Amino acid sequence: MNRDISKNNPKGFSLFEILVVMGILLILSVLVFPITLQKAQKTKLESYANQLKTDIYYQQQRSAYKEIPGGVYIRNNGYTIFDGESFSVASETQSKNLPANMYITSINLTLGNEILFPAGKFKPSVYGSLVLTDGTFSVLLYINREGLIDYETL
């Protein structure tokens, strides 16, 4: 049983073919990698904006249902949730900081840096907008006079 192995019909790939495929994959990864990094960075920023929105909403609901005044004090590097008529006379606070590369800019609230909710009310006594940014991407977070809270990517 002798088999005739043909030398003109090799099985497998040549080194050149493997290098060409690896080159194509390298070019594709170089093109896709920066896009993926940007998307991850934007998603992280939106995640922090959503957390801030949720915390403002939580304080709004808490003030309305527990009938205690409260609010959120906004800083450049984070924010503080508080109970009381204002941040300066707050009885209980919970401070949250943003990562080092994120900060809050363009704080356009009707009264300083505080979003205030009177006891037993959904409507804030202070409303407006602020911008959360990481230097590359920005998110506008706003609360209107009816108490609706949302954000959008700029």
TrEMBL record:
<protein>
    <recommendedName>
        <fullName>General secretion pathway GspH domain-containing protein</fullName>
    </recommendedName>
</protein>
<dbReference type="InterPro" id="IPR045584">
    <property type="entry name" value="Pilin-like"/>
</dbReference>
<dbReference type="Pfam" id="PF07963">
    <property type="entry name" value="N_methyl"/>
</dbReference>
<dbReference type="InterPro" id="IPR012902">
    <property type="entry name" value="N_methyl_site"/>
</dbReference>
<feature type="transmembrane region" description="Helical">
    <location>
        <begin position="12"/>
        <end position="37"/>
    </location>
</feature>
<keyword id="KW-0472">Membrane</keyword>
<keyword id="KW-1133">Transmembrane helix</keyword>
<keyword id="KW-0812">Transmembrane</keyword>
